[in-house]
Structures are given as C-alpha cells and as structure tokens.
Amino acid sequence: MGRRSWIGSWPVYRQLTGTDPRGLGVAAKSDRPHVARTSTADQVVKSVCPYCAVGCGQNVYVSDGKVVQIEGDPDSPVSRGRLCPKGSASLQLTAGEARRYQVLYRRPHAADWEPLDLDTAMDMIADRVIQARREGWQWDVDGIRTRRTLGLATLGGATLDNEENYLIKKLFTALGAIQIENQARI
C-alpha cells in the first residue's frame, strides 16, 4: 500500500481534503461494517462489578454459556450505565487468557506454585481453620467466661452484599471468632 493511499484511508485526512469538512457524512464513515459485540448474545444477566464498594451495575452478555461482553447497566441507580476503567475491563476477569482455572498452592519456603485439585485445597483450608480455632481458643480470661477464639479473624471484601456479610458473620460467630470486620465499613 502506497503512502498516499495509506494516508487517504485516515478519516481526518478525508475530512480535511474532501467535501465533508465538518466530518458529519462520508468522511466519518468506515469502510468495514460494524457489528455490536452484544448482538450475538443469547441472554443478558444483571450483575454487580466485583472491584470496589461502589456496586456499579453491569449487564453481562452470554452466548452459548460463555460471557461475550460486559457493559454498564443503564438501569442501575448507582452507576446509570457507567463503569470505571477496571469495571469496563471486567470481561478479562471472566474470559481473559491469563485467568486460572485451577487452585495454585505454594508450600512454605517454596519458590514455585503447584496445582492442587479443589477437594484437596478445601480439606487443607478446613484443617487449618479447625487447628487455628483450637490453638487460639479461650474458655475464660481472668476468671470471666469468654468461650472465644483469637486464632480466627475475617475482613470481608467491599463487593460483598448484605446477605453474604450476614452469612460470614454467622459462620465466624459460630466458630467463636470475635474479630469480624468488613472493608466497606472501614
């Protein structure tokens, strides 16, 4: 492609040298057809952006069981269809090439991560919760009955909704933890 035809393909060049100096007609049109990324979607699922405590609404476009696009939800009273740069890029969170689909574990003092199956990872977590609870358990402090553990604590993420926070609070209270907090309140 010669230099003249390459420059001639630029819309701004066509606008300045052609008959459409304001760029309202032919100068602004593209040579290739445009198809909306959302036009292939089978369904639209309402969601909430996972990144911060604002809770912006998202429309998740799904085709054949796979997410094809994520956009701001214009019906959301929080964001009115707008998303920040992180929220706009949340398609990468679900379908990006860098997404991991397996549990990775790094043993103490190891340099590398190793894949684990989910059942093994869940068993390791349960064993560690039980051990931390047992080792930090206090029946009483200075003769006052406490029945608590200082071996467990939780700090909920900002994207948790009230129902999730309620369940986390009930779980950790039942385990005897007293250090229960949520990032959104801090």
Strand content: 25-35%
**Helix percentage range:** 25-40%
Work out the number of β strands. 8
Estimated radius of gyration? 27 Å
Show unreliable segments: none
Can you tell me the overall shape? elongated
Please tag this protein with its features.
186 residues; single chain; elongated; alpha+beta; 3-stranded mixed beta sheet; 6 helices; 3-stranded antiparallel beta sheet; 27% strand; 28% helix; 8 strands
Structural description of this entry:
With 186 residues, this protein is of the alpha+beta class. 28% of the residues lie in helices and 27% in strands. The chain contains 6 helices and 8 strands. It has helices at 3-8, 11-17, 85-88, 91-95, 118-135, 162-174; strands spanning 43-48, 57-63, 66-72, 103-105, 114-116, 137-141, 144-156, 177-182. The strands form 3 sheets. Strands 1-2-3 form a 3-stranded antiparallel β-sheet. A 3-stranded mixed β-sheet has the order 6-7-8. Strand 7, helix 6 (162-174) and strand 8 form a beta-alpha-beta unit. The mean pLDDT is 85.
